[in-house]
Design goal:
Elements (H helix, E strand, L loop, with lengths): L2 H9 L8 E2 L5 E6 L2 E2 L7 E8 L2 E12 L2 H4 L11 E8 L14 E3 L6 H10 L19 H29 L4 H13 L1 H14 L2 H7 L3 H11 L11 H16 L21 H14 L3 H7 L3 H7 L11 E3 L2 E2 L9 H24 L5 H6 L8 H8 L7 H15 L8 H10 L1
Parallel strand pairs: 5-6, 6-7
Antiparallel strand pairs: 1-2, 2-4, 3-4, 4-5, 8-9
Helix pairs in contact: 3-17, 4-13, 4-16, 5-6, 5-13, 8-9, 8-10
Length: 427
């Protein structure tokens, strides 16, 4: 028996509501189960129960065994002083308040149907499970319910990302442009170079970027020099020499310290994702837009964002992917697919945080933009599709990732709309 099932039973009243009695044979009527609490403290706040025709209002605590009350040291915690009912699977010991009065206990084991227990057992039956617990049944969930749940999970995922954004905001003394630069540079590095680009962003004062963004070669020289991409003294390439010269001057002028910057990787990357290309694209983006953060925050549609990010790497990179080695000519433009990733991982999270901090509400354009971006392509989304869950856009794919990472892999089925829906259907 697991405690999450007992939470489900109480929350959704999956027990016969007539003729309930406490372990002391007192009549019990559930008036209001209360509000489910997922944080510290009693499991349900502000419940109402009628015991022996006396109405009680307060909190409800749930355990598998009543002795868990003492195992969790609740008798020493003031947060549990207002518990009016102890709901347990099995009562193995009485529980008392500080005034020595016994807390009424509802023992569930004699009230729960075999069909509910069987349905719960089947939900967690690991036999032949290759992806998620409910993979055999998830396709039966109504599309409307699934879409609403994925939208809620999309915003839950934004909430999770917001802690990183607000941490950056505190570090930068409320400089939103700096926060945007750090987050954007990190995500220009994608998965492989995200940490390296983040270390670069943290090592450069954004005031330096502001001062250099009108001069593209100088801005590029700082990004490359700080990233240790100008360290090779054997390259006689004219552009490399120019950037190296600029960086020596700017490094001294701004007291730059590249020692704390992690050198980015080339291994396992397709050439368009090489750090040389991505850093030049970022430099061109800031060179083109002197108030990039303001423009992005003002953008209301996907097309507006595409227009803002319509930039390419510098002309040198038309014939290069790395310094000193020529390649077939081709403009290294920021693709819409890459912009979509930046929107999902940078723009929407910072719009979410900025609007909340500015006026306490969520920017309504977040949903409209996420709903028209193509879904992400990865193994998790493909696995969901194979089980009958076909996501249509980035909002739903982000929700699906949140579902898998925070619920499915952690067996939080009874905190999930899908899991509780299936359990209700089968019981």
């Amino acid at each position: 028996m697991r405690e999450d099932l007992l939470h489900f039973i109480w929350k959704y009243k999956k027990l016969p509501l007539e003729d309930l009695v406490t372990s002391n044979k007192e009549s019990l009527v559930i008036v209001d189960v209360g509000m489910h609490n997922h944080l510290a403290g009693p499991d349900f706040f502000n419940a109402q129960v009628n015991i022996n025709e006396q109405l009680w209002a307060g909190n409800v605590e749930i355990h598998v065994k009543s002795s868990d009350w003492y195992a969790h040291n609740h008798e020493k915690d003031r947060n549990y002083d207002n518990v009016i009912l102890h709901v347990v699977w099995e009562e193995d010991v009485e529980v008392f308040r500080k005034d020595n009065s016994e807390i009424p206990t509802l023992e569930l084991k004699d009230y729960i149907s075999e069909s509910l227990l069987r349905a719960y057992q089947e939900l967690f039956d690991k036999k032949d499970i290759r992806f998620i617990n409910c993979e055999k049944d998830i396709g039966r969930i109504a599309p409307f319910i699934l879409q609403n749940w994925l939208e809620r999970l999309f915003f839950e995922r934004l909430e999770r990302k917001s802690s990183f954004v607000f941490g950056l905001l505190e570090d930068s003394k409320n400089d939103w442009e700096n926060v945007f630069f750090v987050l954007l540079l990190k995500n220009f590095g994608l998965k492989i170079n995200g940490d390296a680009f983040l270390s670069l962003a943290r090592a450069i004062e954004f005031s330096v970027v502001r001062k250099l963004q009108h001069d593209l070669p100088q801005l590029e020289s700082v990004l490359y020099g700080m990233s240790h991409l100008l360290d090779d003294n054997t390259i006689a390439d004219e552009y490399h020499v120019l950037l190296k010269k600029e960086y020596r001057y700017l490094r001294h002028k701004f007291s730059l310290e590249e020692e704390r910057v992690q050198k980015p990787e080339f291994f396992k990357l397709r050439p368009p994702n090489f750090p040389t290309i991505r850093l030049s694209q970022l430099a061109n983006l800031y060179h083109k837009h002197q108030n990039l953060f303001g423009r992005v925050m003002a953008a209301k549609t996907l097309e507006e964002i595409y227009t803002i990010f319509d930039v390419s790497a510098s002309h040198y990179w038309d014939t290069h992917f790395t310094f000193g080695k020529s390649s077939r000519k081709g403009v290294k433009k920021v693709t819409k697919k890459f912009i979509d990733l930046l929107i999902i991982n940078t723009i929407l999270p910072i719009k979410f945080c900025y609007s909340r901090r500015l006026n306490g509400v969520v920017d309504e354009t977040i949903t409209s933009i996420a709903s028209v971006i193509n879904k992400e392509e990865n193994s998790i989304i493909s696995n969901f599709a194979s089980k009958g869950v076909n996501v249509e856009n980035a909002l739903e794919s982000q929700g699906a990732l949140q579902l898998y990472n925070e619920y499915c892999t952690k067996n939080k089925c009874l905190q999930c709309t899908i899991g509780t829906g299936l359990l209700s259907q089968n019981s």
